[in-house]
Design a protein that fits this description.
single chain; Helicase, Ruva Protein, domain 3; alpha+beta; 180 residues; two-stranded antiparallel sheet
Length: 180
């Protein structure tokens, strides 16, 4: 019977809403995964900056790192090696190399917008980031403006090394590192 109604034109109005509802239900069922992901995305906040870390080192450890290596006692050297063993920054380094590196370790606090390493300079040190963010830029020549422009390469954060490649390969610094 529905076919006779459709042919005569009476049943078209009745069928349209039901067909539309079925299509809507079907598309909702198919896209259910995407709809649930959309709700999760709305609740997710994208961090624009890294969370602040209160402090990794104690004041005693900072005092040891502030001393010149000639003035450190044997117990201070030993505690420094133990400290380096527990920091994730130094986890990639073998224990023997960590022990040899410990006398050369120093702790410095840098303010914002301070150049740590400048492009084109000779390498003298390697830096390890304990807290904070470092912007890594490269100077490139802009022929339109006839001057060098700094281009942001990436952001470096806690647990990363700075300037180790240039130091190991004994070449001039390829990038500028600035505290954020």
């Amino acid at each position: 019977m529905p076919n006779k109604e459709i042919r005569s034109g009476k049943g078209k109005d009745k069928l349209k809403p039901s067909i539309r509802f079925k299509q809507l239900a079907l598309s909702a069922l198919i896209n259910q995964q995407w709809l649930s992901d959309l709700i999760d995305q709305q609740r997710t906040k994208i961090p624009l900056s890294r969370p602040k870390v209160a402090g990794i080192l104690t004041n005693n450890e900072k005092n040891i790192l502030h001393k010149y290596r000639e003035l450190r006692s044997d117990s201070e050297r030993e505690s420094l090696v133990n400290l380096m063993a527990h920091l994730t920054v130094f986890s990639q380094i073998p224990p023997k190399l960590r022990a040899r590196l410990a006398p050369y370790a120093y702790f410095i606090i840098l303010g914002p917008k301070r150049k740590i390493i400048e492009q084109g300079r000779e390498p003298a040190t390697v830096y390890f980031v304990l807290t904070g963010d470092i912007t890594v830029t490269t100077k490139i020549w802009n022929s339109v403006k006839n001057k060098y422009i700094e281009r942001l390469e990436y952001l470096s954060g806690p647990g990363e090394w700075l300037g180790e490649i240039d130091f190991l390969e004994n070449q001039k610094r390829q990038q500028t590192f600035t505290s954020k």
